[in-house]
Amino acid sequence: DDTARTVLDLGRINQRNGPAYGYNPTDFLRDGSLRTVVTVNPLEQRENRLGSVMARWQGLWPDGGASFLVSPRLAHGPSSNGMSFDWGATNNRNRAVASYSGRLGKRASGQLLAYKGKGLQLQWGATGTALLSDAMVTYAEWSWSRERDLLSKALATSVPETSGNRIVAGLTYTTAGKLSITTELQYNRFALNRDTWEALAGAPQQVWALYYLTAQDLHELASRTGLLVYATQKDLFVKKLDLTGFIKFNGTDHSHMVWIEARYRFGKGDLALQLQRSAGQARSEFGSVPIKGAVSIVAIAYL
User: Which residues contact 245 (CB under 8 A, 6 or more apart)?
Assistant: First the structure.
């Protein structure tokens, strides 16, 4: 069918932009969307977060599409009431996103985005994916903005705004045996670099806690540079048994986190064993977490 289609959506929608695994600079509506942290897996966090209330128009055609959404302000800020719809977590200011996507050839595609939030200058973004071979895919994300750095946001201090880029580039290789390995390089101009991190060595622990909690709430990269290695093995030894794991490296403070999950999928549920280990200095991103290692058993039933 070569005819164009128009779709209009209204409601709470989990709008996800960008092909990257661990950090998405073009995912402009990501802040405040994670109400409860039940997993450190970035892909699962992205899928199971709160959506934003919005009106979204989409025009779709065979070689691409365009969209425009408006997400209005519904409350001043997040609610601490566990039974609340928590409109203020995702809709605490007026926001709008416009995008255009299309093919860049038989094996490549891209997307251009523009984002405007109240009190923010217009932000730009772009993504691209390319099939290098039958087993190898590469992707990239970029966004540009002018804003305060992450530390000043965490400490609520007034500093001049600066312009900068957020960039992610990754490569995924999949074998014939259903093993998929992704390597992702990450960059955030607004996060701490090594020199600033060392200059704040004597800062109280509360400063570091605020900084990392703010990065978590905003779904921001807490380090100037980062690395993610993500692997999935489908049907390990037997059908429906999947092994997933990743390693996250903080390029600023040199801390890291390892997470591994073995999950068996039944017809009406899942059973999973998860292992997690964090290491680093006391004031580092992964070294500052109170629990350095954890073992979890997760059971899910679908009714």
Answer: 230, 231, 258, 259, 260, 261
